[in-house]
Amino acid sequence: MTGGQNLMAYETILLKIEGNIATITINRPPMNPLNSGVFRDVIAATREIEADDNVKVIILDSTGDKAFAAGADVKEMVNLTPVEIYDFSLNFRKACECFAANPLPTIAVIKGFALGGGCEMAMACDLRIAADNAKFGQPEINLGVTPGAGGTQRLTRLVGAARAKELILTGDMIDAATAERIGLVNKVVPLAELDAAVAALAEKLASKPKVSLKLCKSAINTAEDVDISSGIAFEVLTFSLANASADKLEGMKALLEKRKANFQDK
């Protein structure tokens, strides 16, 4: 499968593949609440993306400017039994892992509210670019519950325990500038410039050799879960594997010959 041909149609998302870049767009405007349908569609779309060997970068976007995702869909959740909530949360986790555990780099494009589950799904991506109108928060405590799709874990790793406790225990929202300052997002740009900024970043990543992209992400993800000695041991393995690639030879030859490398993703 190549170039975005014959893509499936989905109920709650839009899928676009152009060259090396795939974009999943949450399509439940205006607030884009996350329900079981979104989880199913994200998981299915990711499988479709994985079938396209040309794709090197995945973007997670949303329809409209009011909300990236204002949270998990309370209308669906309110009457679920504990067992049903457990299944709901498991499916949400699987959807988030489509970005966090995906071997390809992933970028969240955040406009408006990214609250609760919306913030959690954004945090599952490798990089987060926010518009200046973005608002972030984990307000679950105001509903008498806790984050349930990685909020307590990913937020702590991104901003530290003290900041995570402040946001989760108070349920307060923060603006985009504060999110950038504490490390929750990588960059904030004016809303009118958001699409161009994300496109430039995605194209920059897509210009890199695919083997190295995957190995670098894998090593960084491993660093979050193991001690430094084990992490460096894993890094040695990724370094060795990268050196076995055809792109390693091309990259080094290009440097020595003072020309631009022509990577073939092999």
In short, what is this structure?
The protein has 266 residues and is of the alpha/beta class.
Task: Please supply descriptive tags for the structure shown above.
single chain, 6-stranded mixed sheet, 47% helix, Enoyl-CoA_hydra/iso, lyase, Enoyl-CoA_hydra_C, Lyase 2-enoyl-coa Hydratase, Chain  A, domain 2, 266 residues, hydro-lyase activity, 2 domains, 4-stranded mixed sheet, alpha/beta, 2-enoyl-CoA Hydratase, Chain A, domain 1
Describe this structure in words.
It is a single chain. This protein is of the alpha/beta class. Helices cover 47% and strands 16% of the residues. The protein has two domains: 194 residues, 2-enoyl-CoA Hydratase, Chain A, domain 1; 47 residues, Lyase 2-enoyl-coa Hydratase, Chain  A, domain 2 (Orthogonal Bundle), CATH 1.10.12. It contains eleven helices and ten strands. Helix 3 packs parallel to helix 4 and helix 9 packs antiparallel against helix 10. The protein is globular, with a radius of gyration of 19 Å. The protein starts with 12 loop residues before the first strand and ends in a 10-residue tail after the last helix. Pfam families: ECH_1.
